[in-house]
Amino acid sequence: MDRWFWCDSSLSSGEAVAASAKSIRLYDGDKKTGYEDGHLTLTNQRLLWRHESQSSSLGVATEPANSVKASGSKKIHTGILGIERDIQKKQEAASQNISRAFEDLKNLMGLAKDMVSLSRSISNKIKEHSVSADDTTQFRSYLLSLGIDDPVTREKYGSATQYHHHLAREVARALEEPVQEAGGVMLLSEVYCRINRARGLQLLSPEDVVQACNLMRTLDLPLSLHTFESGVQVVQITGLDQDKVVKDTAQVLACHEGDGMSAGDLARECGVPLLLARERLLQAERCAQAVRDESSEGLRFYPNLFFSRS
């Protein structure tokens, strides 16, 4: 009721009655008011309510009125047709914006491919001029961040089997060096993130990545999928000596014989993910190279002195 005001019941210049009704009660939201059994009149500018005993009316300005004021008394055609036209205009504008966005996206993809080709050319020239290994490694990391210039897609191959075979080779080729730099082992979740980052817009589903990694061993690729007893899956260098990994873990534990190590401690010292550090400690325990101590402070591992002195 805040917008209602008392006004003259007579129509002003340019005001015309659109509809009227009798015996109308006014409500303030859900609440009844004392304004009941009145005559309601809808004009092109106002909504008027008047009881027969009153000379003046309660009125509120309509919206087809606000439009007239805003446009300098220019008459605006409304109704269902006007609404449909307005919706159509908005849809056309949205369609044009989407089309422009996809055009920009295509141009960006084209430029990205050119940049990757240029980077590979420069990388080859760097090798020919015997630039330091550190510079070459750094440049290769830049190259990986730019992405794969011709990623494997389903459209290129007639069957899902052929698609996953080629995808396995692409993943192994793109991530062999990063896996080696990570100590020879990389969590499957990180593999998924890295390969999608390298592919840019041609994103892979988790299922496609898992199926491709499952094929690595049969295709005799430099990387292969390994599953720990806990179910954690990693991609590792093919032929990675698990005994050596256990031995290296035991050597790190030996340096902390007094206070032991948690998975977080090993992760920080060896620079590996927390989940992978925990798997290394559990694997060392299964091989009798480590023992555990569970307390209120958490789970810690110690070198197995019983085994080493037996």
TrEMBL record:
<protein>
    <recommendedName>
        <fullName>Vacuolar protein-sorting-associated protein 36</fullName>
    </recommendedName>
</protein>
<dbReference type="InterPro" id="IPR037855">
    <property type="entry name" value="Vps36"/>
</dbReference>
<keyword id="KW-0653">Protein transport</keyword>
<keyword id="KW-0813">Transport</keyword>
<dbReference type="GO" id="GO:0043130">
    <property type="term" value="F:ubiquitin binding"/>
</dbReference>
<comment type="subunit">
    <text>Component of the endosomal sorting complex required for transport II (ESCRT-II).</text>
</comment>
<dbReference type="GO" id="GO:0032266">
    <property type="term" value="F:phosphatidylinositol-3-phosphate binding"/>
</dbReference>
<dbReference type="InterPro" id="IPR036388">
    <property type="entry name" value="WH-like_DNA-bd_sf"/>
</dbReference>
<dbReference type="InterPro" id="IPR011993">
    <property type="entry name" value="PH-like_dom_sf"/>
</dbReference>
<dbReference type="GO" id="GO:0000814">
    <property type="term" value="C:ESCRT II complex"/>
</dbReference>
<dbReference type="InterPro" id="IPR021648">
    <property type="entry name" value="GLUE_dom"/>
</dbReference>
<dbReference type="Pfam" id="PF04157">
    <property type="entry name" value="EAP30"/>
</dbReference>
<keyword id="KW-0963">Cytoplasm</keyword>
<dbReference type="GO" id="GO:0031902">
    <property type="term" value="C:late endosome membrane"/>
</dbReference>
<dbReference type="Pfam" id="PF11605">
    <property type="entry name" value="Vps36_ESCRT-II"/>
</dbReference>
<comment type="function">
    <text>Component of the ESCRT-II complex (endosomal sorting complex required for transport II), which is required for multivesicular body (MVB) formation and sorting of endosomal cargo proteins into MVBs.</text>
</comment>
<comment type="similarity">
    <text>Belongs to the VPS36 family.</text>
</comment>
<dbReference type="GO" id="GO:0043328">
    <property type="term" value="P:protein transport to vacuole involved in ubiquitin-dependent protein catabolic process via the multivesicular body sorting pathway"/>
</dbReference>
<dbReference type="InterPro" id="IPR036390">
    <property type="entry name" value="WH_DNA-bd_sf"/>
</dbReference>
<feature type="domain" description="GLUE N-terminal">
    <location>
        <begin position="7"/>
        <end position="68"/>
    </location>
</feature>
<dbReference type="InterPro" id="IPR040608">
    <property type="entry name" value="Snf8/Vps36"/>
</dbReference>
<keyword id="KW-0967">Endosome</keyword>
